[in-house]
Design goal:
This protein has 6 helices and no strands. The chain is mainly α. α1 crosses α4 and α2 (about 20-30) runs antiparallel to α3 (about 35-50).
């Protein structure tokens, strides 16, 4: 059975390195870049950060995690499905989202 991830820990770590910390570095690198390809890549990264995004992989992973988390309630109806394997798979999937475990699993699921 999955135990989820340390979502709170990842959120705290990602919050320490937001887009605003990377913008000055990208600006500095752009000033010194002479290679056209390097400048284009730095410009793209700077613009992405200026739009509120972070190059930190934890930040990106949390964006995906939160998108799936938002859609989880749509899966709850599958607990009423007659297919026990499907119900088991949905329950397993929900265990990866430990921060919502108190509201995502039904109090007494039907047996497989």
């Amino acid at each position: 059975m999955a135990t989820g991830i340390d979502v709170a820990g990842r959120r705290a770590a990602a919050a320490e390195v937001g887009p605003e910390e990377f913008l000055p570095w990208h600006e500095e690198q752009l000033v010194g870049a002479t290679d056209t390809d390097e400048r284009a890549q730095l410009q793209e990264l700077r613009d992405w950060g200026a739009a509120g995004n972070s190059p930190d992989s934890r930040w990106s992973a949390l964006q995906s995690y939160d998108a799936v988390l938002t859609e989880l309630p749509g899966l709850f109806v599958l607990f009423d499905d007659d297919d026990g394997c499907l119900r088991t798979r949905i329950a397993y999937l929900l265990t990866w989202f430990s921060e919502s475990s108190t509201t995502s699993l039904p109090p007494s699921p039907r047996p497989c």
